[in-house]
Design goal:
With 141 residues, this protein is of the alpha+beta class. It is built from seven helices and two strands. Helices cover 40% and strands 11% of the residues. The two termini are 27 Å apart.
């Protein structure tokens, strides 16, 4: 998910381009302004932690771009490509390393496990909003 900071900074296209150039296949994507209920559900594992309220406030502060990506070992690869949650630990060349300065305003979310990905996809997408399309084989694209 591209968080409100990416939208505000007009980086949506650039970040999506990087994900596609890496080889991730986008099978679901939409822009949505999260409600407090969805934000709390999305970050449910952090409820009760001191930063939970800030996470919810940031996620609901503007529109996000929710995506479903596909690739072999997708969760592991996306996490590496996105970079460390803490900007000071995120390597240059990763999305967070190149575009993020503050942990509390982390610009992108990546699921941390296949189970989390399934739960989060179900939260943001209906089954009919996900398209498992095939690459063109006849070169007409």
């Amino acid at each position: 998910m591209l968080k409100p900071g990416v939208v505000n900074r007009r980086l949506v296209g650039e970040v999506i381009e990087r994900l596609e150039k890496k080889g991730f296949k986008i099978v679901g994507m939409k822009m949505v302004h999260p409600t407090e209920a969805i934000a709390k559900s999305h970050y449910a594992e952090h409820e009760g932690k001191p930063f939970f309220g800030d996470l919810v406030d940031y996620l609901t502060s503007g529109p996000v771009v929710a995506m479903v990506l596909q690739a072999d070992n997708c969760v592991t690869l996306v996490r590496k490509y996105v970079g460390s949650t803490k900007p000071e630990d995120a390597q240059p060349g990763t999305i967070r390393g190149d575009y993020c300065i503050h942990t509390s305003r982390n610009i992108i979310h990546a699921s941390d496990s296949d189970e989390s990905a399934e739960r989060e996809i179900a939260l943001w997408f209906k089954a009919e909003e996900i398209f498992d399309w095939k690459d063109c084989e006849d070169g007409w694209y």
